[in-house]
Design a protein that fits this description.
By secondary structure, the protein is α/β, with parallel strands linked by helices. The chain has 3 domains: 132 residues, NusB-like (N-utilizing Substance Protein B Homolog, Chain A, Orthogonal Bundle); 54 residues, Alpha-Beta Plaits; 199 residues, Rossmann fold (3-Layer(aba) Sandwich), CATH 3.40.50.150. The protein has 16 helices and 13 strands. The strands form 2 sheets. Strands 5, 6, 7, 8, 9, 10, 11, 12 and 13 form a 9-stranded mixed beta sheet that branches. Strand 6, helix 13 and strand 7 form a beta-alpha-beta unit. The longest helix is centred in the first third of the chain and has 25 residues. The chain is globular. The structure holds S-adenosylmethionine. S-adenosylmethionine binds next to helix 12 and strand 6. The site of S-adenosylmethionine (SAM) has 18 residues, from helix 12 and strand 6. It is an enzyme of class 2 (transferase). This is 16S rRNA (cytosine(967)-C(5))-methyltransferase. Its EC number is 2.1.1.176. GO terms for molecular function: RNA binding; rRNA (cytosine-C5-)-methyltransferase activity.
C-alpha cells in the first residue's frame, strides 16, 4: 500500500502532474486522492480544481510580490504558492491555517528556503491582495484566468455574450442526471430521489434532465446500477432526440466512448436499434460496454479509426449517424479546468482537420434520406459551423436540416449552446440530411 498523503500534498502532486508534465487531471488525481483520508478528499479536490481554474489569475497576482519569476526547477514552489493563494482567496479555511500549511509544504519538497518565501508572500497577499487583484482584473483574460488566445477567440465569437460565457467556464458545474424516461417518468424519478434525501430540479429545456442540488456518489442514486438514470449534462442529452432514431434503424455512433450518448440512443428506442459504436480507443470502449450492460442493451463495438471505414465497415449503409467529434472541449472547461493548461492554439486547426476528415469519411456510409448529427463540446466556430459549412460547400448530396429549438443560439449552420446558457455545458449541434 502506498503511504497516506495530506490533502495539500496530494493536491500539489496532482497540480505538478498537470502543469509541469502535461498529464490530464482525470489521470493524475484519482491515484493520489486514494491516498488521502476520505474526510480530507473534498479539500484535496477543491484545491486541485480551484487552483487549475484560477491559475493564470493567481500567478498574475503573485507576480506583484515576487521580485523575479521562480526558476523552472522550482515549479513545485510556484504551484504551492498558487495553491496557497487560491485557498486564501477562494476557500473559507482560516487564513493562518492556509498560510502555515502551505508554507509547510516547502519542507516536504526538500527546499527549506521555500518555507520562508511562501510564508512571506502569502502574508503579503493577506494584507495587499485586494489592491493587486484589482489591477490584474483590468485585463479580461487574466480576470477569467483564460489563455490570451482562447479569450480572443471567445470574444470574436460571442461579442456581448463573452463575459457570461467566461464566467460560466469558471463556475462550479452542476451534477445533472438523465432519467431513462422509457422506464420511469422524470417526475416519478424525482420523487425516488427525494425519498433518498436527494433534492433535484427538472431542467427547464431538456425533458429528460434533473439537476441535483448537490453532487453525490452514483452509488447513492436510486436504480443507477439498473440503468434508471445516468449522469449526463443537459446539453449532451440533446443529441439523442435530435437524431431521433426510428425503431429498428441502423445507427452508427462514431466516436462513441465513453458511451453516454450511445446509451441514450438505445434507452430512447427501448433498445430496438441496430447500433454500431466505433471508437479509436479500445480502452475507452470498455466504458461503452459497461454502460450498455447497465442499460441492458446490445450493440456492436468496434475499436477503429472512424475516418477509415474501409477497415471496419462492409455492410449496408446507416439510417442515422452520430458524429460526436473529438474537439478542444472548450465547452466543458468548467468540468475540466486542466483544459485551460493543456490545450494550445495550434491544436485548433489540427482538430478542425480531423473533424472535416471524419465528416468526409463517414458521409458515404449514410443512406439516402438518412440523417447525420454533427456534435462537439467546443465553443469555437472553427470546429463547429466553419467545419460544417465547408463540408456543405463541397458535398452536393448534403444539406442542413435546421434545428428549431428553444435552447442555444442559431449559427450560420447548426446551433450553439454557449457555455452556461440554461446552466448547460457548451455544445454545438448541426443536423445534416442526405439527398
Ligand atoms: C467527445 S468524445 C465522445 C463522447 C461520447 N460520444 C459520449 O457521449 O460519451 C470523442 C471520442 O472520440 C474518440 N476518437 C477520437 N478520434 C477518433 C477517430 N479517428 N475514430 C474514432 N474515434 C475517435 C475518442 O477516443 C473519444 O472517445
Amino acid at each position: 500500500m502506498s503511504s497516506p498523503l495530506s490533502p495539500r500534498k496530494a493536491a500539489l502532486q496532482a497540480l505538478l502532474r498537470v502543469l509541469r508534465d502535461g498529464a490530464s487531471l482525470s489521470d493524475a488525481l484519482p491515484p493520489l486522492l486514494a491516498r488521502v483520508s476520505p474526510r480530507d478528499r473534498g479539500l484535496a479536490q477543491a484545491l486541485c480544481y480551484g487552483t487549475l481554474r484560477w491559475h493564470r489569475r493567481l500567478e498574475a497576482i503573485l507576480a506583484c510580490w515576487l521580485e523575479r519569476p521562480l526558476k523552472r526547477r522550482d515549479r513545485d514552489v510556484a504551484c504551492a504558492l498558487a495553491m496557497g493563494l487560491f485557498e486564501l482567496l477562494y476557500l473559507d479555511t482560516p487564513d493562518y491555517a492556509a498560510v502555515q500549511e502551505t508554507a509547510g509544504l516547502g519542507r516536504g519538497l526538500g527546499k527549506r528556503w521555500a518555507v520562508g518565501l511562501i510564508n512571506g508572500v502569502l502574508r503579503r497577499a493577506q494584507r495587499e491582495g485586494a489592491a493587486c487583484a484589482t489591477a490584474v482584473d483590468r485585463d479580461p483574460a487574466l480576470r477569467h484566468a483564460l489563455p490570451d488566445w482562447l479569450y480572443r477567440r471567445l470574444a470574436a465569437a460571442y461579442g456581448d455574450g463573452t463575459e457570461a460565457v467566461c464566467q460560466a467556464l469558471n463556475a462550479h458545474p452542476p451534477m445533472t442526471l438523465r432519467v431513462n424516461t422509457a422506464r420511469i417518468p422524470r417526475g416519478d424519478y424525482q420523487e425516488r430521489l427525494a425519498g433518498a434525501g436527494l433534492a433535484a430540479a427538472p431542467h427547464p429545456q431538456v425533458e429528460t434532465a434533473l439537476v441535483l442540488e448537490r453532487p453525490v456518489e452514483v452509488s447513492a442514486l436510486p436504480g443507477f446500477a439498473e440503468g434508471l438514470c445516468s449522469v449526463q449534462d443537459a446539453a449532451a442529452q440533446l443529441a439523442a432526440p435530435l437524431l431521433d432514431c426510428p425503431p429498428g434503424a441502423r445507427v452508427l455512433d462514431a466516436c462513441a466512448a465513453p458511451g453516454g450518448k450511445t446509451l441514450h440512443l438505445l434507452d430512447r428506442a427501448g433498445g430496438r436499434l441496430a447500433l454500431t459504436a466505433v471508437d479509436s480507443s479500445g480502452k475507452r470502449l470498455e466504458r461503452v460496454a459497461e454502460n450498455l450492460q447497465r442499460g441492458g442493451h446490445r450493440a456492436a463495438l468496434v475499436a477503429a479509426d472512424a475516418a477509415h471505414p474501409d477497415t471496419w465497415h462492409q455492410s449496408p449503409p446507416f439510417d442515422r449517424i452520430l458524429l460526436d467529434a473529438p474537439c478542444s472541449a472548450t465547452g466543458v472547461i468548467r468540468r475540466h479546468p486542466d483544459i485551460k493548461h493543456l490545450r494550445r492554439e495550434g491544436d485548433i486547426p489540427a482538430l478542425a482537420r480531423t473533424q472535416a476528415d471524419l465528416l468526409r469519411a463517414l458521409w458515404p456510409l449514410l443512406a439516402p434520406g438518412g440523417i447525420l448529427l454533427y456534435a462537439t463540446c467546443s465553443l469555437l466556430p472553427d470546429e463547429n459551423d466553419m467545419t460544417v459549412l465547408r463540408f456543405l460547400e463541397d458535398e452536393p448530396s448534403a444539406s442542413e436540416d435546421p434545428i428549431q429549438a428553444p435552447w442555444g443560439v442559431p449559427r450560420q449552420v447548426g446551433r450553439q449552446v454557449p457555455a452556461g446558457s440554461d446552466g448547460m455545458d457548451g455544445f454545438y449541434y448541426a443536423r445534416l440530411i442526405k439527398r
